[in-house]
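Collaborator request, handled under Task 6.
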Amino acid sequence: MPVDDSYIPGVQTPEGALRHVRENLREARHEAQESPGAVARKLNWPLSRVLKIEQSCRPAEPDDVAKLLDHYRFSAEAREHLLGLARRAAR
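Structure tokens returned to the collaborator:
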């Protein structure tokens, strides 16, 4: 069942959806006390990939967002919601 995101300002636009996903991923990394480099090493990615996902104005690939959501152990509901936003932003 999709999460009602109408209460979150701005997520109805692709830019707002992207911003919300980036903020959640960055916050999760901070809470996990991991550096972007540590995340990149654990996922066997170049550092630039993690940085671009967190900082870029361009949408990330939904598969990359899914891997980060799994890495940070988001709940199933939060994962579904944020992945849906990532897909919206990628359109």
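The cover message to the collaborator said: "The helical segments are 14-31, 36-43, 47-55, 62-71, 76-90. Residues 14-90 form a domain with the 434 Repressor (Amino-terminal Domain) fold (CATH 1.10.260). Please let us know whether this matches your experimental observations."
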